[in-house]
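Now for one record.
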Amino acid sequence: MTIKISTNFDAGAIEVVRADSAQAIELNLRKDSNANIAQWFYFRLQGARGERCSMRILNAAEATYPDGWKNYQAVASYDRKNWFRVPTAYDGKVMTIAHTPQHDSIYYAYFEPYSWERHLDLLATAQMSAGVHVQDLGNTVEGRDLNVVVIGDPAAAQKVWVIARQHPGETMAEWFAEGMINALLEQANPLVQKLLKHAVFYIVPNMNPDGAIHGNLRTNAAGANLNREWMTPSLESSPEVWHVKNKIHETGCDLFLDIHGDEALPYVFVAGSEMLEGFSAQQAEEQERFIEQFLRASEDFQTEFGYSAGKYRADMLKLASKYIGHTFKCVSLTLEMPFKDNAHTPEPKAGWNGARSAKLGQEILQAILHHLERGAR
């Protein structure tokens, strides 16, 4: 059977250099839309059942985050539901995926994908619950819907904002958002009842629909990195940020979480707002207390490894969490999850994946409740 590699589906991305035989497949990473960024891949392989395949990504060293390939294992799936890690090696120049498919068709990806159809299903399911509304905020660059899931009474004293997937290839972020939303829909749960007594949740599960569908790592359809647009977003190049930022200013914000994935660091961690000018002792205390509660809530979260406080100093207020923390003087965190396995709590077969991301989205609600209860005093 002839070897065939295809990407003509939601988030598909790879360039085929050569696919004459299973043992000599050569590929290149494809760049994001209108941007010099490359890292995400997602492709279908047919015609190699039972054959030992060697898939060499020739330009891996030219990826935006080449350190992301160190100790990295690609993910694969036969049914697009159950994903597992496959042997992957990086020699400093070329990354090679070595695997023998057991069925006629198999998918390989950088991380477990989160499809646009699943996104629409999430919104459709959420709106069926009492006290939940799915609001349209506006259109993306290419005219797709940008929605926020509102859970609870907008008149509640405190407003919690959670945004995910500004960088579309960081699909773990939307898995996290799904886990949080589904947990909040369990209205018989005493934890949820307490949360909604204190606050309304505004959750944007996918900030970058165009980039997600195109299979981009970091940019929208116009080539904009949304997490560098928060000071001066525009309807032309970054309408996604423009719409969400305006809505946050309309509602106010008492707690903000921006959900991401990190290519290189194999940990779950947060980046805070302590580098901001005017960051008060009260803000520092509230941020530290939230982090302590998150540590108690999740064994996957840790604080030993993460970013230095000065990592984004030059771009500070262009970033969502820094802009919101500075503007609203609230606890405002960027949460990062790994593309690799979590070295803190490793699971070699699956690595870090969608289910673990969703579980984290549920677990962080404990820390949020503690924060809200203190804020209500």
Summary: The two ends are 69 Å apart (CA to CA).
